[in-house]
């Protein structure tokens, strides 16, 4: 359906243009799942040859889906790319402390869906903190912010290129989940893979066996040679990087327009286990379809675009919850989205925005309420940047050879710590 309007929804509400519209007396009215706090519904109404949005009493209309949209605010760090690792390590510490200050200053309570919340993309991000600030300061973060559900730590390491990992490295990559649980008592079962165009199918079994259950996949489709499989839609924001535009040099079909599901159980090669994967287009652009950018949003624009977004989701999925990422490279902790979500939720009952402070929550709810409706897929994901790996075959060969000897080397060292490692 095409949604056309010459007036903003805010104006329609202010002048009461459609307050007297009734489904029984109107011509063509299509109800949406956008519901105001006073109970009125947004509908699409035909006026001549145009379709406009109108706000009407919810009488005789098909039930609305009570949508809740979970939004992850974090910081993406390209380790060693935009700055040296030392500067980036300092940045992670600063952003954790900024996030704590924002939580402290937030007048919204822990039970408010729009309270300020922050997520660390991985354990690399977190473990810089105790190394720089000491364990006492780190336990303060855990006790007073993580356990409250205001800050969370994804259980993966970082945006590692899993396709170039051998068996031993894959096994050890999953141990960040174990370390986070055993050392810090943080039970997060969700990892984030952002800005990386693909995940190796070989991660599913060892990661699941280590206790990882869920994956947020927010890839980057950039590659210098455009796709020959899809035409890129350059009207989509950040089309070069955003797989929602499709047509990038990396064929990662996680667009809202794709026939492939953006939520699925990714089954291991031996069918013994799976990971629940939720795709979010590119991490900085998960809500661009409704006008929400990583650095802000305008209420009237989101109100105009939201009905079409919900209509698209309802045509494709049986759920009433959705998960997106909404952050960018080196983004400082900030409360812009939380403040917008609070203003939105005060005005609109559905959809409700929920800031994510416990990564497991949307996955657990989806699995509990819709588990039998989530499709299962098998197979390899795109290994989009392997041109980097295959350009240095000697280095890769040496890495794999060293990896195969790692277990034996460690055993020899444990037996005789003074032994010459050569």
Shape: globular
What share of residues is helical? 25-40%
- SSE order, as H and E? HEEEEHEHHEHHEHEEEHEHEEHEHH
Instruction: State the end-to-end distance.
Output: 68 Å
Number of strands: 14
Mean pLDDT, all residues: 90
Strand portion: 15-25%
Main beta-sheet strand count, sense and barrel state:
5 strands, mixed
In the sheet with the most strands, the strands line up as 7-8-10-9-14
Low-confidence stretches: 1-26
Please give the oligomerization state of what you see: single chain
Contiguous helical run count: 12
C-alpha Rg (nearest Å): 23 Å
Helix and strand content put the structural class at alpha/beta
Structure description:
The chain has twelve helices and 14 strands. The protein starts with 8 loop residues before the first helix and ends in a 7-residue tail after the last helix. By secondary structure, the chain is an alpha/beta fold. It has helices spanning 9-15, 85-105, 123-133, 135-146, 167-173, 175-184, 204-209, 299-316, 336-347, 360-370, 386-390, 393-415, and strands at 29-36, 41-47, 50-56, 68-72, 118-120, 151-153, 190-194, 214-218, 263-267, 274-279, 321-325, 348-350, 352-355, 376-377. Helix 2 crosses helix 3 (123-133) and helix 3 crosses helix 4. The strands form four sheets. Strands 7-8-10-9-14 form a five-stranded mixed sheet. It has a four-stranded antiparallel sheet with strand order 3-2-1-12. The protein is 34% helix and 16% strand.
Write the layout of secondary structure elements.
Elements: H1 9-15, E1 29-36, E2 41-47, E3 50-56, E4 68-72, H2 85-105, E5 118-120, H3 123-133, H4 135-146, E6 151-153, H5 167-173, H6 175-184, E7 190-194, H7 204-209, E8 214-218, E9 263-267, E10 274-279, H8 299-316, E11 321-325, H9 336-347, E12 348-350, E13 352-355, H10 360-370, E14 376-377, H11 386-390, H12 393-415
Parallel strand pairs: 4-11, 4-13, 5-6, 7-8, 8-10, 9-14
Antiparallel strand pairs: 1-2, 1-12, 2-3, 9-10
């Amino acid at each position: 359906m095409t949604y056309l309007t010459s007036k903003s929804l805010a104006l329609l509400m202010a002048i009461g243009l459609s307050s007297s519209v009734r489904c029984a007396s109107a011509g063509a009215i299509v109800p949406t799942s956008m519901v105001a706090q006073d109970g009125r519904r947004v509908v699409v109404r035909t006026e001549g040859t145009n379709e406009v949005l109108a706000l009407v009493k919810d009488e005789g209309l098909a039930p609305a889906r009570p949508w809740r949209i979970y939004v992850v605010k974090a910081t993406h760090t390209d380790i060693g790319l935009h700055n040296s690792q030392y500067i980036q390590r300092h940045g992670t510490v600063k952003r954790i402390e900024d996030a704590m200050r924002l939580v402290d200053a937030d007048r919204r309570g822990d039970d408010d869906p729009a309270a300020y919340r922050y997520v660390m993309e991985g354990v690399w991000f977190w473990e810089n903190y105790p190394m720089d600030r000491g364990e006492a300061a780190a336990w303060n973060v855990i006790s007073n912010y993580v356990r409250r559900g205001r800050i969370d730590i994804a259980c993966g390491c970082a945006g590692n290129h899993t396709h170039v990992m051998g068996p031993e490295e894959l096994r050890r990559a999953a141990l960040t989940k174990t370390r986070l649980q055993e050392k810090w008592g943080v039970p997060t079962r969700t990892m984030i893979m952002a800005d990386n165009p693909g995940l190796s199918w070989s991660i599913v079994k060892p990661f699941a066996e280590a206790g990882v259950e869920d994956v947020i996949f927010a890839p980057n489709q950039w590659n210098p040679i455009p796709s020959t499989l899809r035409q890129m839609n350059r009207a989509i924001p950040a089309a070069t990087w955003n797989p929602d535009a499709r047509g990038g040099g990396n064929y990662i079909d996680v667009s809202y327009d794709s026939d492939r599901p953006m939520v699925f159980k990714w089954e291991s090669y031996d069918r013994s286990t799976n990971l629940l994967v939720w795709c979010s287009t590119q991490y900085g652009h998960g809500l661009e379809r409704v006008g929400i950018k990583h650095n802000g949003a305008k209420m009237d624009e989101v109100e105009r675009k939201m009905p079409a977004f919900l209509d698209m989701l309802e045509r494709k999925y049986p759920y009433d919850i959705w998960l997106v990422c909404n952050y960018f490279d080196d983004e400082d902790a900030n409360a812009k989205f939380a403040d917008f979500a609070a203003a939105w939720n005060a005005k609109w009952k559905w959809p409700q925005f929920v800031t994510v402070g416990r990564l497991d929550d949307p996955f657990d709810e989806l699995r509990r309420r819709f588990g039998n409706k989530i499709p299962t897929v098998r197979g390899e994901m795109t290994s989009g940047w392997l041109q980097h790996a295959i350009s240095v075959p000697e280095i890769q060969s040496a890495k794999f050879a060293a990896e195969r000897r790692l277990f034996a080397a460690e055993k020899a060292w444990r037996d005789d710590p003074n032994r010459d490692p050569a």
